[in-house]
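name: query_chain
kind: protein
chains: 1
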Amino acid sequence: MPALFAVLALLASAPTAAQSSPASPDTGGERQLLLSADPQVQEHEVRIGSNTPINLFFDGQVQLVWLEGREHFRRVTVTEDSILLMASRALKLGQRLRMPVRFLDGAAPERVDFILVVVPPAQAERHVEVYRPRSPESGQEQAREERELARQCQAELARERAERKRLGGLTGLLVSRQMDEEGVVTRRLSGALRWLAGEQLTAWQPFSYRASSPGTGGDGEQPKRVRVAVELWLRNESAQSWLAAGAELVSGSGVRWSATAWQEAPVIPGTNRQRVVVEAEMSEAEARGAFVLELWEEGRTRPVTFGGVSFP
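structure:
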């Protein structure tokens, strides 16, 4: 999973206590550079080759002050914490170019000057990670951040494992005790479902469903619980797309039941219909009678109402 890889990469790339040596063919042009805490401007050589990209990564936000001979570089890309360079063939072997870089967070050192030395492409560096010394306080803060990232990774891994273990289909309904031997009962609502004249969202092929939970009801037991759902296809007659974010079922006596609303994609004006499924849980007695279905977008905006909903 990506978050776990991020933790492993962070631990693997943490700076050591000593400055690393320049890259060699064994490292594939990669190295880590640890700067000193000296507030004076420091100089460090970096080997570059013609038509050979090199990435410099920093432990904070940086600014490229200037680049000597910039017109001889095919590419110079500066982001918040990295610099990508690619020199052209116009540069001569042994040529030395200065590139000052300033750190913007106020930590020492505030600036480092890189001396770019042109070498044959096979000897050029391709990946340099630049670190500054950390104070005890910043080290503690980094440790806290790493622990928090590890905690988030563990929680995400546990969630994914739980998702994989969760059974789907009929087996999932039976094991989670959301359906008894009666199964799922269906009712077609065509002809019964109604909406206000001029409503900009209209419904097509509406169905309602009911599934009872086993082991409920009977003498001395809790009222039998049922799960009810409404499925319909919406067509959009308005000028804006529409996506369900919430729903309620309202009984004839005015009791409101919070429901979940699922819609695969927004329904676009003048295009094919989109399916919406709404689900709620209540007692078997409460599921009798007619209901009004209310749907709305994020923030309970642009509501739409359908009457005549009943369950089998």
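note: DSSP finds three helices and 18 strands in the chain.
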